[in-house]
Every structure is written in C-alpha cells, then in structure tokens.
Write a structure and sequence with these properties.
6-stranded parallel sheet, about 25% helix, 7-stranded mixed sheet, globular, alpha/beta
C-alpha cells in the first residue's frame, strides 16, 4: 500500500485586500494532511477552480456565502482522486467533485463529495461546462430570466466560462438574436466564428451603449449580466418592454475602493416594466438532472462547445485568479495541481 502524504500545500488568505488583491494578501503554506476519519475521505486534488465570486469572499462582509477566514485555506470547486476512504460507497481511485480547492489534498466528510466519471468527460469539465459554471448559465437563462423562444439576448463577459455557454444555450433554444461583449478582438472572433453569436463587440473599442445599439437595432429582451457598471446601463437603454435581467456577476466593480454608482438610467425600468433578478446557483440545484441531460447531449452532438484556460502548478494558483479578474481567460480558468 502506498504511504499517504503527511503534508501538502494550500493557499491561505492572510490579509483582506483593499482594491486589487496583492501577493502579500495570500500565502502558499505547507499544512498537515490527516488520514480520513470515520465517514470521511482523503482526496488528492487534480484541478481546482478560480472564479470571480472569490474576490468578494476575500472581504469581511456578510453575503450569500461566508467570507474566507484569515490564516485559513481558501475554498472553491475542485476535482480529484480518492486516495484513502473510510466511507461507504467511496473507494480508492474514485474521482470526486467537492468544495475544498486551493490545496493539494483535502480530507472531509464523504457526503460533501459527488462522484464523477472521467470516461464521460475530462475531469476539468466538471468544474466548468458540466459544473457550477454550466449550471449557472443554464439556470440563469432558463429559470431566472425565463427565456423564451424568439427572445433577443445580450451577454456580457461572453467569452468567459458562464457567458460563452449562455449565448450558445440561447441559440440552441431558438433566440432571435444573440449578442455578446468581450475584452479583445480575438475573443469577439471566437464568439462569432465558433460559438455562433449573431453579433459581438469589443467593449474596449468604444462606448458599450453605442456598440450595443448597433448590434441590436431592434433592442433586446434578455440581458445576462456578468459585469455590471457601464454594461448594465447600456443594457437598460436597449431592453424592450417587459425585458428581463439576470444579475449574475459584477466583475467590473469587485476591486473598486469607492462605492460604485448605480445605473443613471434606472428610471427607464418603470416605463419599460423591466424585471431585474439576482441569481445564486445554489438555489437551482434541483435543475441538475435536467441540466446534465441537456448539456451532455449537446456536447455529444457537437452543438455546444467550450474552452478552458488551464494554468499548471498550484504555485501559480493566485496568478491564475488575478488573470480571471483581468479577463485573461478564455472560457473556464482552471488550475492543474499536479
């Protein structure tokens, strides 16, 4: 029997960032690795996820998810291999999805793990298209925004893990027009040429409001917001009567040190009878069976495509996280631990 590790590395939050996170706010530390207790498993992580929502968790503020604790390992989605088990139904060699990323090894109650099949999809896909990012796109479009056939849909952050799937899902379900914004000309070409968006623009090339008006001359019915700020204001101007907005993220303001002003044209929501709804993916786990069925079918047929940006080495995990905040990823940003 192979000896179990006694220590492993884990990223700790050591200071609350003010503005952009700095290397001095985190530390990669060697920590003890325990053998699993009764009903628990020990997992060697293969991949972990870095996501925009982790930036607000670095702040000591009450939210829908508790903040990271200082001098404790950070957490997030991870997938890995069971290397020791004292839990019924989990064997050494099983692959599992769980919530203790940012570290090499995780020991935790087996009930917090979900088995995944590496023969059906690459393990990393369970952190993206078949994981939280995919379910966020699926639930945010179909349940929160109540998408219906014939809707015109605008997605910000459209080349990211969630946005790229939202646009494709809308197209697959019969959107009349799908528009996306992204942060580079290369990403715009990806949206048009590979993901089948009807129109896309680089938000760095000019005011979002003008570019959106040109891309959606008949207005939009649904806005899927991953960005906030200028994008939200532009979408309010473009939304048709009874338009719906899914507020999924606000990455444009996560590192602001001063209060972010609200959209200046919010009064338009009155006459247009607009509906804005924030979404938290944890409220939609009941959709998982249908989500897996639909998305796995579209992946198998080639109708749905996805990309990943994989950063090798746990020591590069914090740089990968900063890359997400800067928009350097195409598709899901993932850290390969090994």
């Amino acid at each position: 029997m192979t000896a179990l590790p006694t220590t492993g590395r884990a990223w700790h939050l050591v200071a609350r960032p003010h503005g952009w996170p700095q290397p001095t706010d985190v530390a990669l530390r060697e920590v003890p690795v325990a053998e699993p207790g009764e009903g628990r498993i020990l997992v060697r992580n293969r991949y972990f996820s870095v996501d925009p929502y982790m930036r607000p968790r670095m702040n000591d503020v009450k939210s829908y998810i508790p903040p990271f604790e200082l001098d404790r390992p950070m957490a997030g989605g991870a997938v890995g291999e069971v290397i020791a088990s004292r839990a019924e139904g989990f064997a050494v060699g099983d692959h599992v999805l769980h919530g203790l990323g940012w570290r090499e090894y995780a020991e935790f109650p087996a009930e917090q793990a979900t088995k995944v099949d590496a023969s059906l999809a690459p393990l990393s896909a369970y952190l993206g298209v078949l994981g939280m990012a995919g379910l966020t796109a699926y639930a945010g479009l179909f349940e929160t925004a109540v998408f219906k056939e014939g809707d015109a849909v605008f997605v910000s952050g459209a080349a990211g893990a969630v946005g790229s799937l939202v646009g494709q899902l809308a197209r697959l379900r019969g959107a009349s027009r799908v528009i996306g914004s992204a942060g580079s000309d290369e990403k715009v070409r990806l949206l048009l040429d590979e993901y089948g968006f009807d129109a896309a623009f680089n938000y760095k090339s000019g005011p979002v409001k003008g570019q959106l008006a040109e891309a959606a001359p008949d207005g939009i019915d649904v806005y899927f917001d991953n960005v906030g700020g200028e994008h939200l204001e532009a979408a309010i101007a473009a939304l048709n009567t009874h338009g719906r907005v899914t507020i999924c993220g606000a990455i444009a303001q996560y590192n602001n040190t001063e209060p972010t002003p609200g959209p200046r044209n919010l009064a338009l929501a009155i006459g247009k009878r607009l509906r804005f709804e924030g979404m938290y993916v944890g409220d939609h786990y009941g959709l998982k069976p249908q989500f897996i069925k639909d998305v796995s079918g579209w992946l198998a047929s080639g109708e749905l495509k996805y990309k990943e940006t994989v950063v090798d080495g746990i020591e590069n995990g914090f740089d990968a996280f900063l890359g997400v905040l800067r928009g350097e990823n195409t598709g899901k940003m993932i850290v390969s631990v090994a």
